[in-house]
Amino acid sequence: QVQLVESGGGLVQAGGSLRLSCAAAGRTFSYYxxxxxxxxxxxxxxxxxxxxxxxxVTEYADSVKGRFTISRDNAKNTVYLQMNSLQSxxxxxxxxxRAARPWTHVTDSxxxxxxxxxxxxxxxxx
Length: 126
Known about the structure:
The chain is mostly beta strands.
């Protein structure tokens, strides 16, 4: 497992934007697919998006497609989540995660990730 630290959350009005960052420790960041998940109060953790280890392939939940963009900078050991056109339904704690095995394809399964950050709160006011 690896240490992951998210940042960039906060309070934003509906229609606004935020960019989350997730910094990973260690030297093997570029080997692993990374994912973003979120959990709202009283709900299960849900998939937001994922980016493959080389960055050329991404996958998103239908609820965020066209509004959210995942990118990564392997030289900085960081993955990003750009969130535009935010809605009140996007309010949640957002977590980044690293795939359990290197060189894997994109996946939306929580069980495929074994390292998690502490989470960052995103609150969208309507």
